[in-house]
């Protein structure tokens, strides 16, 4: 069990940003409207995620740290209609196996909850504690017991870059959630959680960019797409400012990204790229998110239709500009 968790940790917990991703996704799944993330030393010293979500029940608390103990899937059939971000139940055990993790959580506003401490996969403490409704998880000294993994970490700046990039994508995916990100005491991201995507774009890319975005919107029987693309003048040297969000999940889709480029490059030089945020809603059964443990890669069952829609939508938004 313990070794299995360390092995799984290699898959799930590649670097500090993977911990941030898994913890924040859990907070989102718990219905939080406010999520605060504090990191120190690129996340290698501390990653702390505090949310105001549902909290974890007493009996479920230790369970959450065992492998495949997810509360989110009840039957095999559920796997095909995944709405929550997590579903494999392997994130917490994997993280706890390679760090010193502490959870303080409460499911109501009574002021009383519990605290669970796990070190290197072993329960170090489990007791009643004062707690606000929601969950507060601290992950300290990541990879302290896996020196080989620690050796592969890049500079603090690089690790922080991955963390902030992920936080940017998550805030773009959830304009209705108020996020903050602080590193060594500096605030790197702060969104209001008022549901205004344009406001989040301005927070992430700067207010100048926020003012240069064109809205896009399109709907078919299978897909509902809306979002923003930057005006042609605002083109960039790389594609890193393209975010594709499927049913609230930030994903990597080569197919959709390619469709965006195809649309864009019919009007602009092929070495220039837009800022794009696309929210695509579809029946969950049309998308397979269980391709890789990171859940970043997806496959679509009606891909050609989606591709055509996205390409047309981009051309249309830009075309109206050029004319
Ligand atoms: P998964 O998200 O795949 O279910 P995890 O290992 O990430 O698995 O989490 C295990 C379980 O712990 C979750 O199913 C959930 O019940 C509980 N949990 C984890 N984080 C939170 C949180 N922030 N708020 C409420 N419950 C949580
Ligand atoms: Mg999870």
From TrEMBL:
<comment type="function">
    <text>This protein is involved in the repair of mismatches in DNA. It is required for dam-dependent methyl-directed DNA mismatch repair. May act as a 'molecular matchmaker', a protein that promotes the formation of a stable complex between two or more DNA-binding proteins in an ATP-dependent manner without itself being part of a final effector complex.</text>
</comment>
<protein>
    <recommendedName>
        <fullName>DNA mismatch repair protein MutL</fullName>
    </recommendedName>
</protein>
<feature type="domain" description="DNA mismatch repair protein S5">
    <location>
        <begin position="201"/>
        <end position="319"/>
    </location>
</feature>
<comment type="similarity">
    <text>Belongs to the DNA mismatch repair MutL/HexB family.</text>
</comment>
